[in-house]
Amino acid sequence: MGFTTGFFGGIALTSSVLYLTLHAHQRNRYRQSLLLQQSSSLLASLVEEGGSSLPGAPETRIRHAGLVEMAKDRWNDELAGAVNRVYNFDWDRLKADTGNAVASAFSRVVD
After folding, report:
1. Cβ(53)–Cβ(60) under 8 Å?
2. Cα separation of 79 and 86, whole Å?
3. Do 91 and 97 form a contact (C-beta atoms < 8 A)?
4. Residues 78-87: tens digit of each pLDDT
5. Which DSSP symbol is given to 111?
6. DSSP sequence for 52-66
7. Distance between CA atoms of 13 and 50, rounded to whole angstroms?
8. How far apart are alpha carbons 108 and 106 in whole angstroms?
9. For residue 56, is it left (φ>0), alpha (ψ between -120 and 50) or beta?
10. pTM reported for the whole predicted model
């Protein structure tokens, strides 16, 4: 394969890949545009009607948490508090206090 054939083959390959990529991108953008227009019109119709739910959507019920869910929430709150206490603990002060206590105990034993 000569220089000219390889050069024009490379141009043809590169331009075809570029064309296909741009075409796929254009199709994706067009589909996104249609979906956004559909969502916008649906939201506008809901606002104009003053409806609170989509047509055909089941009615939502408010369920109160049971005893198990309340226990889980309390456990999670306790666990989060314990983690915060460990995270915010001054470990340097503990190290200094422990070092001082060990040093004073050692000095009493030696004396």
Report:
1. yes
2. 11
3. no
4. 999 999 999 9
5. -
6. SS-TTPPPP------
7. 55
8. 5
9. left
10. 0.38
